[in-house]
Amino acid sequence: MPNLSIGAAAKASGVKVPTIRYYESIELLPSPPRTGSNRRTYDAGDVRRLAFIRHARELGFEVEAIRTLLKLQDEPEQSCAAADAIARDRLAEVERRIASLEALRAELMRMVEGCSHGHVGECRVIEILADHGECRHHLGAEPVALAGGAGG
Amino acid sequence: MPNLSIGAAAKASGVKVPTIRYYESIELLPSPPRTGSNRRTYDAGDVRRLAFIRHARELGFEVEAIRTLLKLQDEPEQSCAAADAIARDRLAEVERRIASLEALRAELMRMVEGCSHGHVGECRVIEILADHGECRHHLGAEPVALAGGAGG
DNA sequence: CTACATCCTCTAGCGACTAGAGGATCAAGA
DNA sequence: TCTTGATCCTCTAGTCGCTAGAGGATGTAG
């Protein structure tokens, strides 16, 4: 299945067309050969690489980490200690995030359970947000950062 | 404690100075009065509002949602159904994120456990990322988006 | 009087895309 | 052959929620 158009590569890999071009622009994906009419052509290897990137992104790996992983992949005689370290870092962060989110969920549940659908004056949601002292746990110094950026 | 400088308001509310100015620029916080030498002066009400915003942001509320909540807060005779709905949305999203992150954690644990510190050729980390088929669960269509934005 | 902290405005940058303009090319049907 | 519409190209600018830095004015402590 060689010589795929960018659209076909997008379909096969699950990475959107503009995102593929973006990955090329940041040199995460090599510039593919072009047809006579200047269109990009991809092969199965590119699709695999794109799927790899997509999967890693879904797992929350940052582009820089993916870049490192791809370099490791390109030189398979290297030690996998570096790849392992990246995954471990990721795991630690994911566990931190889960802990934050669970504290957060507890607080949100407290809010919506306390809401008696009366007036805002007695609304727990507003009240809890207004009174920081009611919040016993500590959500950590850094913001929780789950505002979903790239929604469909 | 009226007539605080922006730095004092920042300290009292836990919101950084440039962030306070940013909130003013997007009209989340009203423009405060200025001194003769053009410096912003805040009072206790502003500090409360800032603390409210900060707390809501820590809980993952988007600025637009906070804007709505603040409007509700300013008119306390309204029904709190809107505030409740916003909090419920937030809760649902948090629960989705937790589920994604737990699937993700399982996969990362599988990765680092499988890594025998040999060569990349046998490295589970690379292998699992490369082979999407090994991933049984589904992380959802949208990206997990936990790349920590504003790390201090 | 001298440091130095704090304040001001302004612009630009971050990450990881997404959206749209404005145009070229391709594939299929009438 | 013509036409329609999908796909492709490049480019710039926008998203979100800030953060960083330039370049200058003002305040405060010793």
TrEMBL record, chains A, B:
Q: Which PROSITE patterns match?
A: HTH_MERR_2
Output the Pfam families linked to this UniProt entry.
MerR, MerR-DNA-bind
Keywords noted in UniProt: DNA-binding, Transcription, Transcription regulation
> Quick one: signal sequence residues?
none
Q: Which InterPro entries match?
A: DNA-bd_dom_put_sf, MerR-type_HTH_dom, MerR_fam, Tscrpt_reg_MerR_DNA-bd
Whether Cytoplasm counts among this entry's keywords is: no
Q: CDD domains under this entry? A: HTH_CadR-PbrR-like
Which segments constitute the HTH merR-type domain?
3-72
Question: Could you tell me what this protein is called?
Answer: Helix-turn-helix domain-containing protein
